[in-house]
Description:
Blueprint: E1 4-5, E2 11-12, H1 19-35, H2 37-45, H3 50-70, H4 75-87, H5 96-108, H6 119-129, H7 133-146, H8 155-171, H9 185-193, H10 196-206, H11 220-232, H12 234-245, E3 253-255, H13 258-271, H14 277-286, E4 290-292, H15 294-307
Parallel strand pairs: 3-4
Antiparallel strand pairs: 1-2
Helix pairs in contact: 1-2, 1-3, 2-4, 3-4, 3-5, 5-7, 8-13, 10-11, 12-14, 13-15, 14-15
Amino acid sequence: MDAIPCVDGYPLQPGSPLADAHDALNWYLVCVDEDGWKTATRQVSALRDKSLKLRIWRALLDRLRWLRDNDPHSRNLSRLRDLTNAIEKWSLSVTDDDLRTLLRETADMAGTIAPYTPMPHLMAYVADRGLTPALADAVDDFAAKVRGTTYTINQMQWQLFWSRLDMLAWRNEWNDTDPKRCCTEQIRIDFRQMRGAEREHWRQLLHSIDGDQGPRPAPRWPRRANELVQELEAPAFSTRMNAWLGPLRRGTTVRLSRPGSHVLRALIWIAAPTRDPALMESIAGIRDVRFTPKTNGEKVVRAAAEGLGEGS
């Protein structure tokens, strides 16, 4: 049977597993013409079938690729591209395989669509279930393909995008570690040696650090972090944290990477409210550590001072 042309010219193959998703995209494009893109986007986003919405995402990437290669000046290219912004906020049930496919297909569209769309779904999945070797490799490939490509994207989202990719690289348990590269590399080494319930509690705690915190943590994050600290129990938590923070003593010069700075600041935010004397002494020492590069250490030193009640 011959392909069925869609409203934008895309040739839909009979029996395509994404046929219903392409029908939804046809409807979306018609709705954009009749009611405007805001209404059309809102109605697609309101669909309750998560599996259908996931297929719509796959079909959307397929359509965008076809338009880029066959009709790059079509107004439907920009109309469909607008829908990618809405997908960031969709509630979806994705698998490891789904994410690897979506990362690969998004990277293949580098320069045509902004690469941020998969990130909220990827970060949520990893926070809940952790990375696998295959997914970690897919993230590395994705970062390599999109790096250096030019996009039209706001600066804040662009910074957030790379901060999150940095944090995913930090969480990767299968790449190399080097304590000379960053003081938080010891945390990565120690985590890889953990087992059982302790490992899972620390995984959830460390993987909750996304690199997108502002000068203060979001209100919900400290509450969840405190719950995880309680599950670890005070003595074990204090011993582990002192092993990581204790070496950061007054007058020392320490290398600190960008993702490491997010981790270290978050650990201070977690440790300071416990008022554990040994931890507070470690935090006090951090104020006078010489971090290199200095810009990565500034947020950490500020968090340490505020944790001691010296900042506002």
